[in-house]
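Let's sit down with a protein and look at its sequence and fold side by side. Please make up or recall a protein chain and show it to me in full. Label the sequence line and the structure token line clearly, so we can match residues to local backbone shapes. Go ahead whenever you are ready, and we will take it from there.
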Amino acid sequence: MLLNKLSLYNFKNISEATLEFSPKVNCLLGNNGMGKSNLLDAIYTLSHCRSFCGVTDAMLIKNGADFATLRGSYTRRDTPEELTMAIRPGRRKSLKRGGKEYSRLTEHVGSFPIVMIAPHDIDLIRGSAEERRRWMDMVISQSSPRYLDALLRYGTALEQRNRMLRDGIVDHTLYDAVETVMDMAAQFIADSRRRFTAELTPMFASRYNAIAGHKPGEGEIAGLEYQSWQGEDTEMSLRDLLDSARRHDEIVKHTSVGPHRDDIDMTLNSMSARRTASQGQCKTFTVALRLAQYEFLHKATGMKPLLLLDDVFDKLDASRVEHIMKLATSRSSFGQIFITDTNRTHLDDIMNITGGDYRMWEVNNGTFTPHNSATPI
């Protein structure tokens, strides 16, 4: 999949911009706060219908403006495609594909796969379990509409049960009806998360070793382990657990067991990366995790996702930077790439490695000035 052209109007600090991209590598150079990451977030928003930063729709609109628009021209499975999004305060986002508006934005999820590596990926390691669940759900949903449907059904039933608990309802017949829906969705969610972790782990470990420069059998052993509400008993029924926990839940006024409490352990040498990993190890861990996510989505969708690298080289030593450059510019592994950096040297080094088609822009206060991109400068 390729993004050929992007037009933005009143998106964050970008008043108006139109950029035509290289099918290989696209570089955005500039100081912090100039708009490099905002452009990547626009690309991300067109794919995911929400900002990578998790901000509200109103915060995506330039200060003082009434609305924002994003338009992307793609080549997807060798077919031209166009996405147009309009964002207005207090109103649902409008997303059109080929001029036809989606009735539900969830129908768009996974159609234009994308992977973004950004500084706050550190939250995947040091943040809450909610961060890691959100990441798992986002990746699996892009590869499985059925999984997204199960998540939505479970979330709706969970909200109903929690409302009943808060309202002090004690009718077991009502609880049974809601918990039956939760149980059916929960088993599929757990099975999908378990398969996802098993498939992703070897991809992730390989990427980690490549970035860290480890030879097979040497260095840290990076791992992932899914922590399910089922524990070791993969046949356990959520309905039985909810029934036994109901008295406790009536006291605390919320549902205490289920997929919404799951986590994924991230380890180095079988110890929690959250507690033991250095800053450089955490950065290596998250970059490897995102690159494994890329490989997973490529296999699941049959398309090479767009790869967005936002300030990816910060807090890494020179050898790890070099290894990431070699990985990211491998033509057999990755498709179209977008990179931001404040360091011109990193970008020139990447161009020298690729030796092929690329484009570069200088970014200053939301404006994008193209460099002569025929040859590295």
In short: Residues 22 and 358 are 5 Å apart (CA to CA). Residues 172-212 form the longest helix (41 residues). The mean pLDDT is 89.
